[in-house]
């Protein structure tokens, strides 16, 4: 008898537990339509500092509204993306959310989840403040759906100055042939693997930089919007050259993340690494001063960009507040406050360079005059499914070097996930 | 009648929480996943409709680079090496201890202990041990070989395109051999002493004793060991993620599910999950039926 009473108590306890779980619901934002819930994955480090800077500007510019931090930490945004997907599915969108600008937004756009911001672009003067190439990359069927908060550059070749000097290289190569000649010089000087490389997505970055050199920016843009074919002889040629380039890289590349490759550069075991310009902030943070940078040889004044941006979801509880947030994000003061702390550059061309570190000042100057092209691994050129397929194909190529298979895989990925003609 | 009702009510109450949990979180979600795998939900948007078994057939016919087949091939290599490795090592250790080794308890603990470590933790250590650098940039085990002048033994470990998954099984063997040893040891101890004595009286040599008397009695133990290691290996995810991360070379179906989920191809992720569940079920369900029957018999 005593036992069964205890059993009943346990059962009741379990039942209560269930009830508590079922009843506890998430905090509802947007109360009184003053709060603006900003959904990001900027929860720590330079990104958090940048967000705080932006919030500071928002507080003065949009005094009638209140910032509500909806950051979801962890997994380089993968956690946040899962949370966001389920919230959008339940028609409970945050007032605004962070997303890579460009093709990565296409899922949301096709599903009619985002408001067109073209009118705001004109009203806030963004059309003229952003470079035309960026506006072109952002425009989908004549409409723009996001406001970029920052710009990163993907096609930057970082170098270890001491290693270069030892091999007698005094000038940055500007052509692919010149680059191969320099790599040979480095090999002759005893650097076995002069070009540091990491796993799949970093390989795709290197491959894209080489494609820009081979095809030029216009045809490169076409690869992503469907006007350039992936099956052409020029692509075969580019892949063959890329295969040759891989012979100058570390053999254990597939075991490396970009920071491991960066360490090869810092230790002087490699002379070059192609990586996005977040590397400048990282090298600075690690106290390594002996680095140089140039655009990838043969890229000319092409600026391969990627950006974090904010959007106005349909059904946002506080659309006016969101618009004020977006206006802040797009404003010169907002972009300056955000980017000085995050280590990126403003998307606007009219922000003063004061207060920016040396690399960023140079990048800001380039941004004004450059030709803009997007990047696949970072979402500006292709949606996430496409990125996944391309990364996997590069990983395979890194181990078997099968040129025809890589080209076929890239072509199938474009056909399956790319824009439908 | 009344009395009987009273006896089953507390029983039902007692198991109802776990029944509800199982119904919702296991069978309910399996049903949900199967349902999803039959739809065309390949991005964040809601599905447009049902596509039958398309998601399954596409895994074999039109997956780019035959990625799914490649992940299955990796899984087969991993599973075979892992199962053979744990069973051979586990059997050898069990035989050694079964011969009344000195300080048996001590050795048993030593062999069993790796099992207490999580795959993630041991994966991180083995990632360093199986450093793929060779020659002057060697690290981990390769550095030991290099230092001893045994450079020909240096290995690319898991980055070898064909046999990399065999290297990936090494940490798993290291962790689970002790467990298999414990299973065998229990099996040996379960054999009545009279059988050994009878065999010895009949003049059997030690080899004959093991070959003819003891090993045949171990069949159920070997079956358990095969099933337990086999289903662990087929679901292997954490070890691979911490040794190599998600990438082409070491991709197995469980990692592939994770990758497709992250790129929001929900229907494909569901299809791979269901496929994985089915192949595990093919192995486990007959075993459960067998166990059930033999329990009833005894």
From TrEMBL, chain B:
<keyword id="KW-0812">Transmembrane</keyword>
<feature type="transmembrane region" description="Helical">
    <location>
        <begin position="163"/>
        <end position="186"/>
    </location>
</feature>
<keyword id="KW-1133">Transmembrane helix</keyword>
<dbReference type="InterPro" id="IPR035906">
    <property type="entry name" value="MetI-like_sf"/>
</dbReference>
<feature type="transmembrane region" description="Helical">
    <location>
        <begin position="75"/>
        <end position="97"/>
    </location>
</feature>
<comment type="similarity">
    <text>Belongs to the binding-protein-dependent transport system permease family.</text>
</comment>
<dbReference type="Pfam" id="PF00528">
    <property type="entry name" value="BPD_transp_1"/>
</dbReference>
<dbReference type="GO" id="GO:0055085">
    <property type="term" value="P:transmembrane transport"/>
</dbReference>
<dbReference type="GO" id="GO:0005886">
    <property type="term" value="C:plasma membrane"/>
</dbReference>
<keyword id="KW-0813">Transport</keyword>
<dbReference type="InterPro" id="IPR050809">
    <property type="entry name" value="UgpAE/MalFG_permease"/>
</dbReference>
<feature type="transmembrane region" description="Helical">
    <location>
        <begin position="270"/>
        <end position="289"/>
    </location>
</feature>
<keyword id="KW-1003">Cell membrane</keyword>
<feature type="transmembrane region" description="Helical">
    <location>
        <begin position="12"/>
        <end position="34"/>
    </location>
</feature>
<dbReference type="InterPro" id="IPR000515">
    <property type="entry name" value="MetI-like"/>
</dbReference>
<feature type="domain" description="ABC transmembrane type-1">
    <location>
        <begin position="72"/>
        <end position="287"/>
    </location>
</feature>
<feature type="transmembrane region" description="Helical">
    <location>
        <begin position="109"/>
        <end position="129"/>
    </location>
</feature>
<keyword id="KW-0472">Membrane</keyword>
<protein>
    <submittedName>
        <fullName>Sugar ABC transporter permease</fullName>
    </submittedName>
</protein>
């Amino acid at each position: 008898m005593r036992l069964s009473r205890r059993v009943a108590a346990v059962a009741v306890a379990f039942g209560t537990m269930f009830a508590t779980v079922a009843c506890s619901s998430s905090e509802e934002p947007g109360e009184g339509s003053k709060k603006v819930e900003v959904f990001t994955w900027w929860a720590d480090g330079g990104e958090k500092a940048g967000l705080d800077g932006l919030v500071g500007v928002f507080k003065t510019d949009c005094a009638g509204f209140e910032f509500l931090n909806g950051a979801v930490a962890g997994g380089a945004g993968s956690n946040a993306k899962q949370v966001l997907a389920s919230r959008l599915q339940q028609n409970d969108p945050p007032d605004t959310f962070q997303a890579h600008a460009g093709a990565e937004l296409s899922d949301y756009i096709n599903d009619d989840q985002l408001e067109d911001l073209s009118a705001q672009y004109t009203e806030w003067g963004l059309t003229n403040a952003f470079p035309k190439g960026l506006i072109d990359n952002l425009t989908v069927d004549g409409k723009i759906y996001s406001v970029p908060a920052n710009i990163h550059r993907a096609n930057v070749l970082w170098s270890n100055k001491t290693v270069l000097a030892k091999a007698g290289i005094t000038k940055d190569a500007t052509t692919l042939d010149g680059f191969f000649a320099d790599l040979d010089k480095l090999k002759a000087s005893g650097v076995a693997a002069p070009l540091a490389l990491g796993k799949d997505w970093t390989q795709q970055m290197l491959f894209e930089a080489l494609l820009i050199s081979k095809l030029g920016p216009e045809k490169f843009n076409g690869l992503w919007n469907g006007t350039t074919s992936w099956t052409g002889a020029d692509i075969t040629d580019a892949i063959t050259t890329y295969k040759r380039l891989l012979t100058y890289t570390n053999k254990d590349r597939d075991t490396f993340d970009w920071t491991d490759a960066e360490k090869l550069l810092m230790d002087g075991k490699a002379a070059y690494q192609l990586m996005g310009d977040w590397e400048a902030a990282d090298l600075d943070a690690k106290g390594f001063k002996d680095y140089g940078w140039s655009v990838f040889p043969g890229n000319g004044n092409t600026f391969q960009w990627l950006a974090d941006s904010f959007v106005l979801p349909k059904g946002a509880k506080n659309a006016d507040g969101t618009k004020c947030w977006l206006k802040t994000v797009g404003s010169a003061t907002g972009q300056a406050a955000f980017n000085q702390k995050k280590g990126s550059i403003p998307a606007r061309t009219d922000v003063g360079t004061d207060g920016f570190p040396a690399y960023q000042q140079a990048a800001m100057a380039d941004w004004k005059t450059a030709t803009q092209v997007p990047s696949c691994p970072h979402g500006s050129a292709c949606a996430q499914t496409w990125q996944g397929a391309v990364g996997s194909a590069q990983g395979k190529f890194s181990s078997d070097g099968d040129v025809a298979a890589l080209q076929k895989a890239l072509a199938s990925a474009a056909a399956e996930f790319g824009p439908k003609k | 009648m009344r009395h009987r009702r009273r006896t089953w009510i507390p029983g039902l109450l007692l198991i109802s929480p776990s029944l509800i949990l199982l119904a919702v979180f296991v069978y309910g979600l399996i049903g949900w996943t199967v349902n999803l795998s039959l739809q065309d939900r390949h991005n964040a948007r809601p599905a447009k409709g049902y596509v039958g078994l398309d998601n399954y057939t596409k895994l074999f016919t039109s997956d780019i680079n035959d990625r799914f087949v490649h992940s299955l091939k990796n899984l087969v290599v991993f599973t075979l090496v892992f199962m053979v490795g744990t069973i051979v090592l586990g059997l050898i250790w069990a035989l050694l201890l079964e011969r009344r080794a000195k300080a048996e308890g001590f050795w048993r603990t030593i062999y069993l202990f790796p099992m207490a470590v999580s795959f993630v933790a041991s994966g991180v250590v083995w990632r360093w041990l199986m450093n793929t650098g060779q020659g002057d940039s060697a690290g981990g085990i390769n550095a030991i070989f290099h230092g001893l002048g045994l450079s020909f033994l240096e290995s690319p470990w898991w980055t070898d395109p064909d046999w990399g998954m065999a290297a990936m099984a090494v940490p798993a063997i290291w962790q689970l051999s002790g467990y298999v040893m414990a299973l065998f040891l229990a099996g040996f101890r379960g054999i009545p002493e009279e059988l050994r004595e009878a065999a010895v009286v009949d003049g059997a040599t030690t080899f004959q004793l093991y070959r003819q008397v003891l090993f045949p009695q171990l069949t159920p133990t070997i079956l358990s060991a095969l099933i337990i290691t086999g289903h662990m290996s087929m679901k292997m995810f954490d070890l691979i993620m911490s040794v190599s991360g998600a990438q082409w070379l070491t991709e197995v179906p469980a990692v592939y599910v994770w990758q497709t989920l992250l790129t929001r191809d929900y229907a494909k992720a569901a299809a791979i999950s269901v496929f994985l569940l089915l192949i595990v079920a093919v192995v486990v369900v007959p075993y459960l039926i067998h166990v059930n029957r033999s329990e009833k018999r005894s």
